[in-house]
Write a structure and sequence with these properties.
The structure is a single chain. 43% of the residues lie in helices and 17% in strands. The relative contact order is 0.17. The longest helix has 18 residues. It has 2 domains: 171 residues, no CATH class; 60 residues, ChaB (Rna Polymerase Sigma Factor, Chain: A, Orthogonal Bundle). It has 258 residues and is an alpha+beta fold. The strands form 2 sheets. It has a 6-stranded antiparallel β-sheet with strand order 3-4-2-5-1-6, with helices on both faces.
Amino acid sequence: MTEKAENYTAERTISAVFKEQEQIDGLMRRLLDRGVPNDYISVMGRNFKSETKITGFISKKDVILGGLRTGAIFGSLFGSLLSLLTGVGLLFVPFVGTVVAAGPISAVLLGAASGAIAGSAGIGLVSALTALGMPEDKATIYQTRLQAGEFIVMAEVPADRTGEFQLLMESAGGEEVHISQSTLPRQRSGHCDGAEDLSPEIRSHLSEDAQVAFIESYNAVLDATDDETKAEQTAWEMIREQYDEDENGVWSKAKVVA
């Protein structure tokens, strides 16, 4: 997380639907200029203009384990602005189809698809959005318009600036604007006291035993270095050394030490 994001307080999530990708580019410039860190902006869409095809979910975990260069991947997919977003994936969402999701919402959708959010592996976008506090009728509109090729943007903002950012969304062409009284779930900054402090993405990729091992390793390195990035990297490396992935992509099989 950047220093700017560490000093940023987000308490509300403003969502809107946009018809054109060009509208998103303009909106992102304005959000960043007004102090919203890239860690708090999410985008979803089916028809992004990109010459690069994604074959699966690309997350911070994949960057760590695969030695990939995050900026290079995101830049080749979306160009300069959307490449700033954290986490990107190509996900199959029931009733919608294949969706590109970037920002914190990408980990939320992956967790939902794995049952970490709504407790069902077959949920659609409506179920995921209602689990995040959006009314079902509004969530249904979002799902329908996403399926039709439009785009969804979410910005997590301070409560006392909600009106300012709502007007910004609307002036940029946003429709069906909705304000949620909370932010998107993510891993809590600092020491992890339990699985509830892990991000949906991490929980959905680890068995309960592996979650405990991850947390122990993460906390040990964090206590020694006060470096969250190094702590997460070390924890994932430990998981790779001590566990194997099952057929569902969950690190659950403890390796037998000879």
